[in-house]
Write a structure and sequence with these properties.
The chain is mainly alpha-helical. The protein contains 13 helices and no strands. It has helices spanning 2-14, 18-29, 33-46, 51-65, 74-94, 99-112, 118-138, 143-158, 161-170, 181-194, 199-211, 215-226, 235-249. Helix 10 (181-194) packs antiparallel against helix 11 (199-211). The termini are far apart.
Amino acid sequence: MITYVLAIILAAAQAPGRDSLMAEGTRLTAREPAAALVRFETLLARDSADAVANWRAAVALNDLAQPLTARAERIRRDSLSARAERYARRAVRLTPNDARALFSLGLVLGNVALSRGVRERVRMATEIRDLAVQAIAADSTHDGAHHLLGRWNYEVMRLSGVSRFIARSFLGGGAFGKASWEEAQREMERAVEIDPTRIYHRLDLARVYVERKEIDAARKELRKLAELPDKTAADPSYRRQAAELLARIDGQEP
């Protein structure tokens, strides 16, 4: 019995501490989200009320779910997204004024909404905007929150006028009336200003410029983007999308 107890104590003493697991998971997040998730879920197994581990696990799960776009991958994508939403909502409950937790939930809901019906997608879109606004209020330097709000405006403004009217009038999407191309551009530009090294920020800013017929500005962003190093596992995909967009607009007038 004494030997068994000593073995348990020794194993506990040799287990990685919270700071070590958190640092390792954070380091792995950008390029190896699956490995990062193992670290964060290890922490959550020890303490489910660890707010940082919750929102970091949510982001890692979202990164794993996002590339799964094929029909055959839908069940796995939905499963990953559902877990991500649970973690993100828990993080927000634990730290309702933390920009990182708020952003993580907004980010995850964008992926979760893909598998929902129209009315539910409208409700989630409204929640995503609210989360982005709250995150910016909590931390005006959170580039991801600015990107999230800019992207929200971009997606809403790309809908037809009829679709926006139906969403506002009949599906509970009153917030859709607040969307504008001006806010989409302003928020995307702010995200790039805060972190000019993020490929995704510049790609979506270029997309906004294209929609606003500011072709020369879009070209400049896409060419700057091409010079940036990859920072995340998704960057090669974003880089390909940027090259395709640049090829499409190169024949257009500035």
